[in-house]
Write a structure and sequence with these properties.
Length: 131
């Protein structure tokens, strides 16, 4: 019986001894870049979520401060309208204004990029007419 010859696909060649595993090494070199891009995407999502939560808290606190005398309840309502971990990082300024009440909420943005953002905050204000 004659030996069977196997034909290779056109353009395909076997890797020589020096080229074996080069794809794995290239992938390992690119993996940190992929991880950094993924973390940056998550960080952008956290920034947007924190800004949305600060805006919600500012509106809730201003609505409460406009309906009653200035006591501490506006800050409690503002913090209650945020997620717990965002509320822990927030600062709610006392209401200001005469015919309208303006409340400003400042929230520290969580940093998952190992300090690349620094100490950044997001600030949102809301104004409601007094009752």
């Amino acid at each position: 019986m004659a030996p069977v010859r196997i034909l290779r696909a056109a353009g395909r060649r076997t890797a020589s001894g020096r080229d074996r595993g080069s794809t794995a090494v290239e992938y390992l070199g690119f993996l940190p870049v992929l991880i950094l891009i993924g973390l940056a995407g998550i960080q952008l999502g956290l920034i947007a979520y924190t800004a949305q939560q600060a805006g919600t808290a500012a509106r809730a606190a201003a609505r409460t401060a406009a309906q009653e005398d200035v006591s501490g309840s506006y800050a409690q309502v503002g913090r209650a309208s945020m997620t717990g971990w965002v509320a822990e990082r927030s600062r709610i300024s006392p209401p200001a204004g005469g015919d309208a009440v303006t409340v400003t909420v400042t929230v520290k943005i969580p940093d998952i990029l190992l300090g690349l953002l620094g100490d950044r905050t997001v600030e949102k204000s809301a104004t409601m007419p007094r009752d």
